Amino acid sequence: MDQLLAIRAFARVVEAGSFTKAADTLGMPNASLTKSIQALEAHLRVKLLHRTTRRVSVTPEGAQYYEKTQRLLKELDDVDASFSAAQSKPRGHLRVDIGSSTASMVLLPALPDFLARYPDIRIDLGVSDKHANLVGDNVDCVIRGGALTDLSLVGRQVGSASWVTCATPEYLRQHGIPKQPADLEQGHAIVQYLSTRTGRGMPLHFEKNGEKIELAGARSVGVNESNAHVAAGLAGLGVIQTFRYAAAPHLASGALVPILEKWQPARYPFYVVYPSNRYVSNRLRVFIDWTASLFAELA
Fold first, then answer.
1. What percent of the chain has pLDDT over 70?
2. pLDDT of residue 78 exceeding 90
3. Is the pLDDT reported for residue 86 higher than 60?
4. Fewer beta carbons under 10 A from the terminal one: N or C of the chain?
5. pTM
């Protein structure tokens, strides 16, 4: 039995909550992973996992073993990194999760620069407005906006983005140009962004001279994906409030017209987030630093 491999396999099953998902992320057959953990249990003479056709749960002994071996694995990774970082360029595989418009408008256009600097790093992007399960999905980091509320995660703020409220010229010809946020509640249609967590429409925020206003208005359409949200605005379905970088090319072309520009909500913070118990590899470290320089330039 390769005990180190068995311990890593056991840890991935605990984190993923699934033998199949753990096997996929480790790049090994499901049967091999199962045999490895069975051998580890036989070696320890302890049942580490309860497995049924529907779910996997950790025994009390398994939870204790996981906690202790995680500390050892982290120390081993630190030792390996202290030698390899000094002797080689960052290399290996990064799994990064990111929101849709942020990927298409910010990260992907700049990614050739990162890959030119670090040609030995391969990046797989999970692009979705839904928040990834960093531990269960074995994601190295996510680029996430908004306040951080999960204490099991570590976040480094890398930048912030400004907002724009806008609509098509034809829509404004038909409905008029609002002078105050309250005007949006009188005869205007709002394309609301729907939270991928709750399904609820996100209100529009406005701020001027310390006065803060939050309103929903009459929702014409709700959209739970950021690129589609902008597309709905471009279709003339109503007023949208989105990140300025997401609407920038359409504002420049005149396809969208900014409104209520004196009522600017606070900038929206962006973080690179990773699990607090996850070893920060050299490749992840350089990616976070590069992302910070990229997002620092957001309008």
1. 93
2. no
3. no
4. C
5. 0.72
**CATH 1.10.10.10 at 3-86, yes or no:** yes
- Considering only CA atoms, which of 154, 145, 147 is closest in space to residue 274? 154
The label of the residue with tokens 């996510």 reads 142
Q: Tokens 């979705």 correspond to what residue?
A: 128
User: And the tokens for 67?
Assistant: 């906690």
Q: What is the mean pLDDT of residues 206-215?
A: 94
Query: Using CA atoms, how far apart are residues 185 and 215, in angstroms rounded to an integer?
Result: 8
Q: What CA–CA distances, in Å, run from 258 to 163, 167, 179, 233?
A: 10, 7, 12, 12
Which option is the CATH number for 163-266: 3.90.226.10, 3.20.20.70, 3.10.310.40, 3.40.190.10?
3.40.190.10
Q: Which of 153, 119, 159, 151 is nearest to 139 (CA)?
A: 153
**The dihedral formed by the CA atoms of 69, 73, 79 and 80, expressed in degrees to the nearest 10:** 150
Tens-digit pLDDT profile for residues 113-133: 999 999 999 999 999 998 877
pLDDT at residue 233 tops 80:
yes
Q: Please name which of 64, 77, 53 lies closest in space to residue 14, comparing C-alpha atoms.
A: 64
199 by Cβ neighbours in 10 Å (0-12 / 13-18 / 19+) ranks as exposed
Residue in 294, 295, 299 with CA at minimum distance from that of residue 145: 295
